[in-house]
TrEMBL record:
Subcellular location: Secreted, Extracellular space, Apoplast
Binding residues for oxalate: N105, H110, E115
Keywords, sorted A to Z: Apoplast, Disulfide bond, Manganese, Metal-binding, Secreted, Signal
Name this protein carries in UniProt: Germin-like protein
GO molecular function: manganese ion binding
Chief location bin: secreted
Residue intervals of the Cupin type-1 domain: 60-210
Family: Belongs to the germin family.
Positions contributing to Mn(2+) binding: H108, H110, E115, H156
Length: 216
């Protein structure tokens, strides 16, 4: 009887270990993304290593200013695994962000990454809000050379507070950090979230919600 109990316990422990164990680091030198692969995985399937070239680890374009002629007055140029296949499985990515004078990178979150932001040119007012129930706002005005970090999953924003263009570089600890833009996702979803739901959530008239929805 005792032997049976011990065996059952060991079997359960082994099952739990196999079920929950994972490898936080790649198990090979690289796994260049094969965008044309038909297999669906959590990430992107690996390209045949024999077909990998230096171009798979190269991206050119961050020297070019992004077009900020849009309602937000900003432009994000991402360098994720979709743009740089060699990033696949490496858990890192980056982006250039351009801001017109008084332009904003609207409140948004990255569900899969922490972001570290470095100002290259100009002055930025940045901030993030903690989760409920505190909803605490942390803000800072950054100058050229300053660095600020936005914890994973928290709503954050940037605003150019100068009369000239501003530029920043963001580093993220995911090959595909994802982005949820608060206003665009809530008011511009497809299909639309019911205006009655949003009116009650934001405690405003339904007509106001529909006006906002019309802009997305």
């Amino acid at each position: 009887m005792a032997t049976s109990i011990v065996f059952s316990t060991l079997l359960a422990l082994c099952f739990c270990y196999v079920s929950f164990a994972f490898d936080p680091q790649p198990l090979q030198d690289f796994c260049v993304a094969d965008a044309g692969g038909a297999v669906r995985v959590n990430g992107v399937v690996c390209k045949d290593p024999k077909k990998v070239t230096a171009e798979d680890f190269f991206f050119s374009g961050l020297q070019k200013p992004g077009n900020t002629l849009n309602p937000s007055g900003s432009r994000v140029t991402p360098v994720f695994a979709a743009q740089l296949p060699g990033l696949n499985t490496l858990g890192i990515s980056m982006a250039r962000i351009d801001y017109a004078p008084w332009g904003i990178n609207p409140p948004h979150t990255h569900p899969r990454a922490t972001e570290i932001l470095t100002v290259l040119e100009g002055s930025l007012h940045v901030g993030f809000v903690t989760s409920a129930p505190e909803n605490r706002l942390f803000t800072k005005v950054l100058q050229k050379g300053d660095v600020f970090v936005f914890p994973a999953g928290l709503i954050h924003f940037q605003r150019n507070v100068g009369y000239t263009n501003a530029v920043a570089i963001a580093g993220l600890n995911s090959q595909n950090p994802g982005v949820i833009s608060v206003a665009a996702n809530v008011f511009g979803s497809n299909p639309r979230i019911s205006s009655d739901v949003l009116a009650k959530a934001f405690q405003v008239d339904r007509n106001i919600v529909e006006t906002i929805q019309s802009k997305f």
